[in-house]
Design goal:
Strand content: 15-25%
Shape: globular
Bound molecules: alpha-L-arabinofuranose
Number of helices: 10
Distance between the termini: 39 Å
CATH class of the largest domain: Alpha Beta
CATH architecture of the largest domain: Alpha-Beta Barrel
GO biological process, one term: L-arabinose metabolic process
Family: Belongs to the glycosyl hydrolase 51 family.
Number of domains: 2
Protein name: non-reducing end alpha-L-arabinofuranosidase
CATH topology of the largest domain: TIM Barrel
Organism: Duganella rivi
EC number: 3.2.1.55
CATH superfamily of the largest domain: Glycosidases
Length: about 525
């Protein structure tokens, strides 16, 4: 249409009260080119001795009036089982580099009380130790990720902890484990040598850490069938040198390198931004900052590809999530924050990024599971609420161990506020272990729904069915007074007579559907 005709047509449309329907976003899913398996451990959790993340939040002790199994709260464990937690990282975090495992075995009343110097300076009773942690993962049906102490520990201490947990011999340490109630070796899926060695773990350089790691790893001995994957503690969003140096130096001695990246609305650690009652500029800055995970993974992967093109090493994002200013009136060392629809969108955007890098990103742990940072569950004494992030994990369960599929988006508009802009739609697709095709869609725009036309060459689409998580407010969240304020709702859409299916994704929403 020439410009004059187009102008006349536009005037006619306006005069008749007509509107121009925006072209839908087109999502193409290439089912003929399956990618890597999305390791279930990408949906891993993190439980640190921090605030009420363990004590009160999950652990109440076997003598508590709160219904519990072996000291672990039945309500919290039950809810976590519903999101099929595949893996739990413990005991830290920064706490790990001051944790001495012998403090946490044997009769609980005889264990030493320490000070948790990293987190609030509170007493650490050591009531939760190795055996209690394995009770938790057993109850959850999850695997264990144990983080060793490099900062204030030693090669000997880590070596002996691994022997204590995994030896099936008659050694004194293995017998000590038996005396403490566990006959068979524990299954330790992953063992990390230190945490954030660039910071709270000892302020080291990558080269210095790499030498220490080599020394420690030499002495981490376990029977073949019980040998954990050993993880080198890597870098953060400011520095790819760790992935570079460690993948070069430790190629033959490690299963992977960790990486940490936290999403902060303002991007500044001193004033991070509030968890609720934020304006749209902090909605978009949070989502824009979280989308940087993509380039962080790309940069770290590129560094690792130089030394490990076969991708034998994993990039383990073993801490990620939102980090806000703590809630007023709470202990600043406890990192307690509310959790809103914005957090669910953050989680879903990250899942979609992790799926796209499933060949390298084979494990992640959101920080953290209960009451700390971007938590699944918040507790107040006997009460418990499920957060929007919890529901994002629940909706994405079909992606655990699914086969990733390439997706491409055409005609995907930008959503912008001021000079910040991000793509409106994020998408991911995978073939589930049940054989079904699953699609996840996120609309980052809090003001406009978006039409997404599905294009799946070679597959006739009849309908999609699943769930949607959305709400009227950007900061919709559950409270102890209103625990059901936000939760997923059923979602379905049917193909038209022409066999085409367009999904109307509500504003600020996460959708996961199976394609029929
Ligand atoms: O998750 C909270 C803390 O953040 C962890 O202990 C530490 O590793 C990171 O700095």
């Amino acid at each position: 249409m020439n410009p004059i005709k187009r102008g006349v047509f536009a005037l006619c449309m306006l005069a008749s009260g007509g509107v121009f329907a925006a072209d839908p976003v087109s999502l193409t899913i290439d089912t003929a080119k399956p990618g890597a398996i999305i390791n279930k451990d990408v949906y891993g959790q993190f439980a640190e001795h921090l605030g009420t993340g363990i004590y009160e939040g999950i652990w109440v002790g076997p003598k508590s009036k709160t219904p519990n199994t072996k000291g672990w709260r039945n309500d919290v464990v039950g809810a976590l089982k519903d999101i099929k937690v595949p893996l739990v990282r413990w005991p830290g975090g920064c706490f790990a580099d001051e944790y001495h495992w012998r403090d946490g075995i044997g009769p609980r009343e005889k264990r030493p009380v320490k000070v948790n110097t990293n987190w609030g300076g509170v007493d650490e009773s050591n009531a939760v130790g190795t055996h209690e942690f394995f009770d938790l993962v057993d109850l959850l049906g999850a695997d264990a990720y144990v983080n060793g102490n490099l900062g204030t520990g030693s090669a000997q201490e880590m070596s002996e902890w691994v022997e204590y947990m995994t030896s099936d011999s008659k050694s004194t340490l293995a017998n000590m484990r038996r005396k403490n109630g566990r006959d068979k070796p524990f299954k330790v899926a992953y063992f990390a040598v230190g945490n954030e060695a660039w910071g709270c773990g000892g302020n080291m350089s990558p080269q210095y850490y790499s030498d220490l790691y080599k020394q420690v790893e030499t002495f981490l001995r376990a029977p073949k069938q019980y040998r954990p994957k050993i993880i080198a503690s890597g870098g953060n969003d400011n520095d790819v040198a760790w992935s570079d140096v460690l993948s070069k130096e430790l190629k033959k001695q490690t299963d992977g390198i960790s990486f940490h990246y936290y999403t902060i609305p303002t991007g500044k650690w001193d004033v991070k931004g509030a968890s609720t009652s934020f304006q749209e500029n902090e909605w978009i800055s949070t989502l824009s900052n979280t989308l940087r995970m993509e380039s962080h993974i790309q940069k770290n992967t590129a560094a690792m590809d130089k030394h490990d093109p076969e991708k034998k090493l994993g990039l383990f994002v073993d801490e990620w999530g939102t980090w806000y200013d703590v809630e007023k009136g709470t202990n600043p060392g406890f990192l307690f924050q509310q959790n809103t629809l914005r957090d669910a969108v953050v989680a879903a955007l990250n899942f979609n990024i992790f799926h796209a890098h499933a060949d390298r990103v084979r494990m992640t742990n959101i920080a953290q599971m209960v009451n700390v940072l971007q938590a699944m569950i918040l507790t107040d004494k006997d009460k418990m609420i499920l957060t929007p992030t919890y529901y994002a994990y629940q909706m994405y369960v079909p992606f655990q161990n699914a086969t990733s599929l390439p997706v491409s988006l055409q005609n995907n508009p930008d959503y912008s506020v001021g000079n910040v802009k991000i793509p409106e739609i994020s998408a991911s697709a995978a073939r589930g272990t049940d054989g079904k095709l699953y699609v996840a869609l996120v609309n980052t725009n809090p003001n406009q729904p978006a039409d997404v036309a599905l294009n799946i060459p070679g597959q006739a689409v009849k309908a999609v069915k699943g769930r949607v998580l959305t709400a009227a407010a950007m900061d919709a969240h559950n409270t102890f007074a209103a625990p059901q304020a936000i939760k997923p709702a059923p979602f379905s859409a049917a193909a038209g007579a022409d066999g085409k299916l367009t999904v109307k994704v509500p504003a600020k929403a996460v959708i996961v559907v199976a394609v029929e």
